[in-house]
Amino acid sequence: MKSWTIRLFQDRISFELSLRYLVTALAWLAIALILFTVSLSAGSNWIPVSEVFQQLTGRIDTHTFVVESLRLPRALLAALVGAALGVAGLILQSLVRNPLASPDIIGITSGASLGAVTCITFATGVISMQFLPLAAIAGGFGAALLIYLLSWNGGVTPVRLVLIGIGVAAIMKACVTFMLVTSEAAVTTKSYIWLTGSVYATTMSDVTSMLVWMAIPIPFLLLLGRGLNVSELGEEVSVSMGIRVELQRLIFLVCSVIFAGTAAAFAGGIEFVGLMAPHIARRFVGRSFYGTAVITALIGASIVLLADLVARTAFLPQDIPGGVFTAAIGAPFFIYLLFHSKNR
């Protein structure tokens, strides 16, 4: 099949672009755009797609509040959250060479949840809840730092990193549960809704803030992404090719934390997207990090857009957190992966 090799920045960035890859990418982009458009039309009142386009292009102003203030920021944030979680999971799975790794399984999302619930429990009424995303991101970084330090034994091995991460995740979930049980009912309810994962009441300010955070790790991934391809061949191969394995591992871990922590900060504990999206992407494209990352981001965005769309339209007038549906799909998928790994 026809393919082209793209080389940028004096071969620092290079990847192969095949016709099959382009078709796959365009197909997933079309799915994401369809879900995005339906998200703007569907709700307690259905707005025809033609009127949504007219509203967005300024030709009418009939649905300004519903489309531009309520549904557009929510759909945009859902897509960004899904893309961020998917890429975070892809980085972790490539880094630790384990198909079961994802931010929510090795403890990064749990750290973000602990940071957010601590903020809700002890800082409500003291500081503005606008600092909640910052608390969640700090919690994610704290969890990653703790996992990395506990995993260090003259270096960090992928298996040790995963096992320590699972243990740290369990401890942090226990801390979150303790705070939920001992807090006042109102605080517990607020924390529980956040933990379930939802993009309810999103504003364009949230979308802008998340875009800024997501832009931070992208240059590092573009410059060092080839190292992830090599690292999947084993540590000895990476060292023999002159790659500083520990430094590379730390940088990629920080990039994954930024993606996962930012997603958790703005949408709560939406689980299993970081596990499912990379697996689905690899069924369509090869193992090149650059190519897989783009497809993974589109699949992750589609999953969260679909989950949020179903959550807010299937049980009207109730608005169910989208994380309920990602967990309902993701948990059986995780079990399937476990059986598949066992039988290989």
UniProtKB/TrEMBL annotation:
Bilayer-crossing regions: 21-42, 75-93, 105-125, 131-149, 161-181, 210-229, 250-277, 289-310, 322-339
Membrane topology: Multi-pass membrane protein
Compartment(s) where it occurs, according to its Swiss-Prot or TrEMBL record: Cell membrane
Keyword entries, A-Z: Cell membrane, Membrane, Transmembrane, Transmembrane helix, Transport
SUPFAM superfamilies for the chain: ABC transporter involved in vitamin B12 uptake, BtuC
Record GO terms (molecular function): transmembrane transporter activity
Single GO biological process annotation from the record: siderophore-iron import into cell
Record-level GO cellular component terms: plasma membrane
Similarity-based family: Belongs to the binding-protein-dependent transport system permease family. FecCD subfamily.
PANTHER family, per database record: FERRIC ENTEROBACTIN TRANSPORT SYSTEM PERMEASE PROTEIN, FERRIC ENTEROBACTIN TRANSPORT SYSTEM PERMEASE PROTEIN FEPG
Protein's name in the database: Iron ABC transporter permease
Originating species: Paenalkalicoccus suaedae
